[in-house]
Amino acid sequence: MSVKAFKLVSAVEREMLMGDKNYINIECIECCGKNLYIGTNDCFICHFLLDEKISTAGKITFAATKQLHKYLGLKKPVSELKAASALTRLLVLCDNTITLVNMMNLEPVPTGARIKGAVTFTLNENPVSGDPFCVEVCIISVKRRTIQMFMVFEDRVQIVKEVFTPEQPCAVAVDGYYLCLALTTQYIILNYNTGVSQDLFPYCSDEKRPIVKRIGRQEFLLAGPGGLGMFATVDGISQRAPVHWSENVIGAALCFPYVVALDDEFITVHSMLDQQQKQTLPFKEGHILQDFEGKVIVATNKGVYILVPLPLEKQIQDLLASHRVEEALVLAKGARRNIPKEKFQV
Fold first, then answer.
1. Which one of 247, 278, 286, 321 has the fewest CB atoms closer than 10 angstroms to its CB?
2. What torsion do the CA atoms of 281, 282, 283, 288 make, to the nearest 10 degrees?
């Protein structure tokens, strides 16, 4: 039985991004507050301002206003974007090089600081340096079986550590000193400070796209064998039961108390509280699903959409109205920290 947990709302339509240029595709997205950045296959970054509007009937819509677009001067796609808002910098991966650009005018930093030789990268959301004017960046290097850690400042970068892995890494997430890695045949947890590693479970990266996602302090979500979404802590244990995904999940995101997954045809919503599938939304040609500060965004090659969560109190009332008292209680107790106290009492 389904729960209406999310509504799919269009944010950036095709014409706004590309006009009549059909060959332009969305490669990556980043969202930071109201700022939405889109990287394209023809080496452009587009900056939009997203305005959320709520009608008198409570309907949410988004109005995107294009601020500017910037050509990076290469014939390569922009493959990843990450915002470091404390530095007002956008980290841009294109042609195996991470460039620092200003978040507002998209101009490269005057010093020309960059990180070369990156296949993919991620930011450490639980940084160890304690410096508020620096972000910690972890890259999978073009060097075989190598991970590198960098400190990135407003106008310079500094390598901190180089770590070698038992097999070629293809995806990484970071929490503190812990790296959760998808290697060629398995997932592992690696402490880059001590060098101690721990095997999690086998996985064949040749057959499927691995998913490694930090979902909270010292906890990760992974695409496991048999279409399972598996949770793992830095100690290599699972404190939650897995969720049953389809075999070909492309991306996953967390919007407590739900895990959202994208495959070729659908967006599925599972509860972390009872592992049940709660909602299925048809969505064809999706290739990106990410969450940004609680905002879940999906994208096709041509458009960007936002999954807007319905208020938890409304979800609980809907469950009660359809006599699903147990589920309503599980949701109310599990989501207690997200519901205002007086509403929870009711």
1. 321
2. 40
